[in-house]
Amino acid sequence: MNLPREAELLRVFIGEGDKYDGRLLYELIVEKAREQGLAGATVYRGILGFGANSRVHTSKVLRLSEGLPVVVEIVDTSEKIQALLPWLDEVIREGLVTLEKATVIVYRHNHGG
């Protein structure tokens, strides 16, 4: 798969415990991206953050590390990203979705050797 030099970067900010139909939302997003043939998806777990409700989520030792922020990043063509957005709107009950232009410098995989 090749990516054009001009692409888009989709970021989805949610909580690590957020679910849809009983499944972890960040896992569903990655699976959906793969199912729709997007170039790839990466999930990052935050150590501290807050969102629209201004509730701080932290991974400090004295607190349970539940509800930490999670960011899912996906880079692909505008067309493929746009095709994913209606589904995201359906499954995200709380969070933030951003989109920005991205310049692809390198996108390659090991050919098994």
TrEMBL record:
Please list which residues make up the signal peptide.
none
Q: Which Pfam families match?
A: DUF190
Report the domain of life of the source organism: Bacteria
Q: Which residues cross the membrane?
A: none
SUPFAM superfamilies found in the cross-reference section: GlnB-like
State the similarity comment: Belongs to the UPF0166 family.
Q: What is this protein identified as?
A: DUF190 domain-containing protein
- Show the taxonomic lineage: Bacteria, Pseudomonadati, Thermodesulfobacteriota, Desulfarculia, Desulfarculales
